[in-house]
Amino acid sequence: MDYLARIPPEALPMTSIPLAKSVPELSTVASGAAALRTFFRIAEAWSLTNDQQRQLLGCARSTFFEWKSGRLKRGLDAGTLERLSHVFGIWSALQVLLPVPERANAWIRRENAAPLFGGGTALERMLAGQVSDLFVVRQYLDAQRGGWT
Fold it and tell me: In this predicted structure, what is the pLDDT of residue 2?
């Protein structure tokens, strides 16, 4: 039997372990601006219209154009960060599954017979308006490549 297993937990000294410095603070203006720059690069690769981009971000028209012009007044809210996370996950999974960029970028516009898409495209599902629509597309792609990484 291990020596420490015999000592009651309350008898062990409590040490404070600082959080790792590598954990980014996602609520800052700088991190929000970086995330939006990444999003707009992906949107360009996918040839998304401004309205499609705005739908994916789930923001108002005026906010969208502020962000697109690089003006971010405060860090992004949790909902927007969640949407961005799913878009980044979809992008990443496509790069693994379809390593030819043209094919990866075209996939979101191809009709898909999988029950999740019902013959429609992944982009149509992603643009349905709910965060959960982004989540299920990401989950589908993650499953196709063998699970979460």
Answer: 57
d(CA 87, CA 135): 9
Beta bridge partners of 111: 121
| pLDDT confidence of residue 129 | 83
Range 94-110 average pLDDT: 95
Integer Cα distance of 79 and 27 in angstroms: 12
First to last CA, the chain: 35
- State how far the Cα of 48 lies from the Cα of 54, in Å rounded to an integer: 10
Quote the distance between the C-alpha of residue 68 and its chain's center. Answer: 18
Do residues 134 and 87 touch, judged by C-beta distance below 8 A? yes
Are 68 and 43 spatial neighbours (Cβ–Cβ below 8 Å)?
A: no
